[in-house]
Specification:
The chain is built from 5 helices and 4 strands. By secondary structure, it is mainly alpha-helical. The protein has one domain (3-96, 103-131). The strands form 2 sheets. It has a two-stranded antiparallel ribbon with strand order 1-2. Strands 3-4 form a two-stranded antiparallel ribbon. Helix 1 runs parallel beside helix 3, helix 2 (42-55) runs antiparallel to helix 3 and helix 3 runs antiparallel to helix 4 (108-130). The longest helix is centred in the first third of the chain and has 27 residues, at 3-29.
């Protein structure tokens, strides 16, 4: 594991855990109306856990933007997962936007998830455009994720 990879992994962990803590703090101190608790399922919790695990390999990519996007996304997912786990899978949504007869209830973790998705998509697209020459061929992802790795030899067809 290279030094840059370790730094990005620690950055991901620190950012995600800090944002999750901020979400938990806001959920604890801001009042939430009884109708603004959104019930979740065990499948949702398993999906959140799988998504958190799936973000770790993103730190292999040489981009702090990807790491920051994954950190925001991970912080939101982790914050909602902990909030739900602490209250029988009912996630509190203390932030309210009302307009006329309706409104939207959400929490800080939801905004972290949306922001993280936006940052992550932009950072990944930027990384791909910057490295488009390196990403030609069938085994381009392997070459990019592991700079020293060599792709397997292409099978040769019958020569005529």
């Amino acid at each position: 594991m290279g030094e840059g990879h370790k730094r990005r992994l620690v950055t991901l962990w620190l950012l995600a855990s800090s944002l999750a803590c901020l979400n938990l703090w806001l959920n604890f101190f801001l009042p939430t109306p009884s109708w603004a608790f959104h019930q979740r399922s065990l499948l949702w919790a398993a999906g959140c856990a799988a998504l958190l695990v799936a973000m770790v390999p993103l730190t292999r990519l040489p981009s702090i933007g990807v790491t920051i996007g994954a950190g925001f996304l991970g912080g939101g997912v982790l914050g909602n997962l902990i909030s739900g786990a602490a209250d029988h899978l009912a996630v509190p949504n203390p932030l309210l936007l009302t307009a006329g007869d309706g409104g939207i209830a959400f929490n800080a973790a939801d905004t972290f998830i949306l922001g993280g998705n936006l940052i992550l998509v932009i950072a990944l697209c930027t990384l791909l455009v910057k490295n488009r020459e390196r990403l030609r061929g069938r085994h381009a992802v392997l070459q990019f994720a592991r700079p020293g790795a060599r792709p397997p030899a292409e099978p040769r067809g019958p020569e005529q």
